[in-house]
Every structure is written in C-alpha cells, then in structure tokens.
Design brief:
globular; five-stranded mixed β-sheet; Cytidine Deaminase, domain 2; 394 residues; 13 helices; 3 domains; alpha/beta; 15 strands
Length: 394
Amino acid sequence: MKEFELKYGCNPNQKPAKIFMADGTDLPIEILNGKPGYINFLDAFNSWQLVKELKAALGMPAATSFKHVSPTSAAVGVVMSEELKKACFVDDVEGLDESPLACAYARARGTDRMSSFGDWIALSDVCDVTTAKLIKREVSDGIIAPGYDPEALEILKSKKKGNYNIVQIDPDYVPEELESKQVFGITFTQKRNDFKIDASLLNNLVTENKELPDAAKRDLIIALITLKYTQSNSVCFAKDGQAIGVGAGQQSRIHCTRLAGNKADIWHLRQHPKVLSLPFLPAIGRPDRDNTIDLYISDDYEDVLADGVWQTLFTQKPEPLTKEEKKAYLAGISGVALGSDAFFPFGDNIERAAKSGVSYVAQPGGSIRDDNVIDACNRFGMTMAFTGMRLFHH
C-alpha cells in the first residue's frame, strides 16, 4: 500500500487528507479492519514508538493508552495484585497472570480510565486472546500491534459493530533519520529523536541519597520513555511498572507536576478499601462506575451520595471517603518515581511531588536553581538523577 486516503484531517472541513511515504515506497502498515482517521494514525505511530522502546529498554511486553497524541499511561507486564486488579476492573479475568501483555494493557488502560475512554491502544507484542478479550469490553477507537493471534483478531474485529480500527505494523520498520512537517505552509526539518533511554541515563546521582533500586530504575525508565512521546511541557509519575500520572501540555512545569500528581493520587485512592468495596448495582456499566468513583473520591462526593442519587448507583449508601482518610492514606505512599522532560526551575515541584509519595526523580538538570531543587530533594530524602537530556515532543 503506497498511500491511504483519509476521510478528513484533524477536523471534517480539512479535506483532502491521506498518509503516504515521501519516497514512494510502501507504507510499513497493514489495515486489518476499520478505516482509521488522521488523529488515529497520529496516535498509532506515536504510541507504537513508545511501546517498542519500552520493550527494547526493559525486555518486557509493553502497552500504552493514547488520547489526543499523548499517553494517558504506559506499562510493562508486571503481575498485578488482587487490589490492583479490582481497581482496574480486571479481577474477573481468567488467565490474566499468564499473559504479561494482558497485564501491561490492564495496567495502562486502568490507570486513568476516564482519560482513556475512547483511546488508541499500542502493544509491543503480538496481541493474544486474553489481551483481546480485555480490549473488547472497553470503549476504544483502535489498536496498533506487530501482529495478532487469529482468534484475537476475530475478537477485535467484532468491536464497534465490525468497524474497530486494527492496524498491523512491520516491527522491523526504521524511519529515515531526518523528519519534516509543515506549519502554515512552511517546512520544518529535524533529526528524528532516536536518543536511547536506558539505565545508564540514571548514573549521575546528585543528591545525598544515592539509593536507586532496580524497581526504581525500571519506573524511571518508564516515566522518561513515556515523556518522550508526550506533548510538552510534561511530567510523569510511575510506580510498580506503570505510569500512574501524566501531566501533559502545560505552559508551567509546576502545573504539569500538580496535574500529574493529582492523577497519581487518584490512581492510589482507587485502591482504597472504601473504593474497592463500593456496592454498585449490577446494571451499572464500566464508564458509569468510572465517573462515579471519580466523584466519590473528589470533594464533590455528595453528587453521588445525595438522597435520590445513591439509590440509582448503589445497593446501599456508602460512607464518604473523608478528607482526613484520603490524606492519611496518601501519606502512607512512597517509592513513586518522577520524570520530567526538562529541568525543574524551582523546588516547588519537589514539594508537590513529595505529597504524592515520590522517592526517586530523573530530570535533565541545567537550571540556574539546580541547587535549590537538589536541596528540596535532600530535605525529603529523595534520590535524584540528572540525565542531561531534554525530551521535548511537539
């Protein structure tokens, strides 16, 4: 396939639209089902690079959930606890522990379920049946992977009344070193960002605490590779083999950190015993459960616990999750990794990160206030690595 005609570009008025190879060669993809659009392909090609790099860096199957050209989360195939399975709505899945790819997808899709509604999925490995069954029951626009088991492909083809977008990519495809795009009729060219992210990037430890266990290195690598394909400015919190909070596209870095930290807090609070035991009515669907949990965790909990409302959601009225309970629960969190795509200009980012249990930080360094940021890390006993590499993505 030399080119693929698209229905329209970013918006319906932007016609004509297509994808093609500038050198006239075949596209490195095969469309197995559906008819992906312009934004679908932007998500597909960015998300594929992310999972391919995660697999190469960590040697584990990887998955990501993308919306509007940024990841809501990314994860590798670490076995899930029973509490996490319940929080991600996958505690009823047989054989989950036997499929690292399914675990990676369940983590990535379960992290920020509201943002992932109607997402694009990327898998580093051939999609198996367990993963396909998980995908089938979620609202999603499409998927890209290097291949599909025959039964898995049939399961996915049944989504969206047979119109689910399924793309297969050549895993050996390597793009040209130079890439270009047009803005306002003006062509921009740059060297593709093929910078390799691995554990060697974490050797320059600048804090008093030099402790950096293997699990923290894994999580920092996940955070940094996630940031490489996130619209900048961006900050990423990671824990237990997955990105748990992504703050993307903010003009101020502290706003990135607050956004990512708030998402990480919500991810933790979804595993609070009160949340896991919410007595939903059997007829309440997964998206409505997500919305309800989001409100229940927030300061607007009365929106779902008010008389006349809770009866439509629960078999009995739950007790509120109080501010004091949330604060106490989050105070017990530690071991979270934090990556930033550019240097922290002030120590306030570290102050905010500490409230979400951050123990490990990786950032480029290079600010005139690096000493202030290092001092803030030292006050909280954090370990911080200067990577020396900015990871802007636009």
